[in-house]
Design goal:
By secondary structure, this protein is mainly beta. The protein folds into two domains: 119 residues, Jelly Rolls (Sandwich), CATH 2.60.120.380; 338 residues, TIM Barrel (Alpha-Beta Barrel), CATH 3.20.20. Helix content is 10%, strand content 38%. The protein has five helices and 29 strands. It has a 15-stranded mixed sheet that branches. A hairpin with a 5-residue loop joins β27 and β28. The termini are close together. The structure holds zinc ion (ZN) (2 copies). One zinc ion binds next to loops. The site of one zinc ion has 5 residues, from loops.
């Protein structure tokens, strides 16, 4: 993408631990505690530890805790955790989020059982992360929820009781809604990933870590909705603090977006075309931010696609300005799927090599995305281009010198009876031999002879009543 941000590359974290702590416990250690010291250097934001030991067949048991540099107990997991992480923002259950100060820390080993003649060899792998960016999480925290390249379906915008999400309690009173209910609703919708985006806070990050092992088929990503008096924008990919009080400083939005990029954040402008007022304070995009500094635009918010509130024209206007912000969608669910725009409506569908946070975010940065407006779970829209042996998918750029023929392939699934529309540079393009979708799996090919100039071409699919079903990112030509 031709945008300024995206400076934190995924997959850069070394696979090797920073420290490996090994030792042997014997029968003499039965019913004792042992501290295993290690040094946390300056500049570390997250400590992640994996732990294992031998001798379980002899009923050897080693419990696990963590002591901070002041000797304070930072958590105790007994024998229940072999992997944990702690940072100032989040921690694995059993452990306490708190700032990671440099100095001498210790693993605290408890020995509830070790037979007189037994020996247990333990190994702890210690990983230090120097930022709270997802891309800097160590490999044990980045195990894919699913492997393999695929279109992954998710929802990138929702609120729970960690901000203003509410639901009715046992006494029929509206209360801050437990996060679990929203995640459960997303799982019932069979989504592959969700991002929970609370207003200006990431207090939900620990709870997502707690829920992730239970929701083993759905990737849970922490995000936040940067919520200001002059616009809302989601940020994904980092748990680092970000000062959202842009009204207090001149050029505040641009400074904040620069900081977001430094932190490894992916920023999406939300519901840009909403009116701002007492009904929705700061909801409209009324600031002077340089939109080249954002990576995505939530052009579909809930069910607004075919309404006057749609932000699709706002997104398209940025394409016309020469920018490449990725089209995404978000339900903005506030009611654990019991409201008008339940989680999954719309669904953002991302092509990614695996189901991890960094892979999904990189797929969004690359524009490998279409939006399934109703989120029906199986609709597909693909637009691919090829010329001179070079290929491009939605979001990619293809160089096509003047006179060269570009071959396009369009693939629409599960939209029988619908109609395809192509849009080039903001106007409908008459390039398709047949616009009707006559079947559950339809492929169309067409050619375009390049004039050598910069263009963008996108596809959309509408049902028989003209309602939008699928909306894809453009293939960019010569830009
Ligand atoms: Zn908002
Ligand atoms: Zn929101």
């Amino acid at each position: 993408m031709a945008t300024a941000a995206g400076t934190v590359a995924a997959g850069t974290k070394a696979a090797e631990p920073d420290l490996v702590l090994r030792g042997v416990l014997t029968g003499a250690d039965h019913h004792t505690y042992r501290s295993v010291p290690f040094t946390v250097p300056e500049g570390v934001e997250r400590v992640t530890i994996t732990f294992d030991y031998t001798g379980k067949e002899e009923h050897s048991v080693i419990d696990l805790g963590l002591l901070g540099p002041d000797g304070a107990l930072r958590g105790w997991s007994g024998g229940s955790k072999r992997l944990f992480t702690v940072s100032s923002v989040d921690a694995t259950p059993s452990f306490i989020p708190a700032p990671v100060a440099p100095g001498q820390w210790a693993l605290l080993l408890g020995v509830p059982n070790l037979r007189k003649t037994a020996e247990a060899s333990y190994t702890a792998q210690v990983y230090f992360s120097r930022s709270l960016a997802a891309a800097d999480e160590p490999p044990p925290l980045r195990v894919p929820v699913r492997s393999g390249a695929a279109w992954y379906r998710g929802d990138l915008h929702m609120h729970t009781g960690h901000s203003d999400g509410s639901c009715v309690n046992q006494s029929s009173v509206s209360v801050p809604c437990p996060l679990f209910l929203t995640v459960q609703a997303a799982a019932e919708r069979k989504l592959d990933f969700i991002a929970v985006t609370e207003h200006n806070t990431v207090s939900h990050a620990s709870e997502l870590r707690e829920l992730q092992p239970y929701f083993s088929k759905m990737l849970l990503m922490p995000g936040r909705e940067i919520t200001t008096f002059s616009g809302h924008a989601n940020m994904f990919g980092t748990l680092a603090p970000l000062d959202f009080r842009v009204a207090a400083t001149p050029d505040g939005w641009n400074r904040m977006l620069d900081q977001a990029a430094t932190l490894g954040g992916l920023v999406s402008i939300n519901h840009a075309n909403r009116p701002s007022g007492e009904a929705c304070m700061g909801c409209g995009w009324t600031n002077d931010a340089d939109i080249a500094k954002v990576q995505a635009i939530e052009a579909v918010n809930g069910t607004d696609a075919d309404t006057l509130l749609s932000s699709i024209p706002f997104w398209q206007a940025q394409l016309q300005r020469g920018l490449h912000p990725t089209l995404i969608g978000g339900s903005d669910d506030h009611r654990a799927a019991r409201g008008d725009t339940p989680v999954g409506t719309p669904t953002t569908v991302v092509y990614a090599p695996e189901l991890t946070q960094t892979a999904i975010l990189d797929g969004i940065r690359a524009g490998h995305v279409f939006v399934d407006i109703a989120g029906n779970g199986s609709r597909l829209l693909e637009l691919n281009a090829e010329t001179g042996g070079r290929q491009a998918m939605m979001g990619d750029s293809l160089a096509a010198p003047g006179g060269l023929t570009v071959q396009f392939k369009l693939h629409v699934a599960q939209a029988d009876g619908a109609t395809i529309k192509l849009v080039m540079d903001g106007a409908e393009a008459d390039l398709l031999p047949a616009r009707d979708v006559d079947g559950d799996d339809v492929q169309r090919s067409f050619n375009w002879i390049s004039d050598g100039k910069p263009h963008w071409l996108r596809a959309e699919v509408r049902d028989a009543r003209g309602h939008l079903l699928l909306l894809g990112n453009p293939v960019y030509l010569n830009r």
